[in-house]
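Reopening this one. Same input as before:
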Amino acid sequence: MYRARDRVDNEEWVARLTRAADGLDLGGEARTNAVDLFLSHVPSEERSKPTVAAASLYAGALIAGEERSQGSVAAAMDVTRLSVQRQWKDLLADAGFRPPEW
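Same output, byte for byte:
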């Protein structure tokens, strides 16, 4: 879980997640999931934030049943598809979900 201060400190990233979710036409649950995942796993290094944000968006959409391709999420967040692929399963597992086996 995260503190309210984490949301304030990462306002720019929450805004980027929201813009990317708009571009992917994701609903409210997917957006909330993505922000919660990101804020619960914010890396200390600034250079790692784009990857974690993109993986959070992908995983948040999966949890909400609004699956999008890794490539489309990566493009919306301006990272590589491989970055999303490497991170999303760990985010889900850390949040208490069992990643799909496909």
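So the earlier flakiness isn't reproducible anymore. For the record, The longest helix spans residues 49-63.
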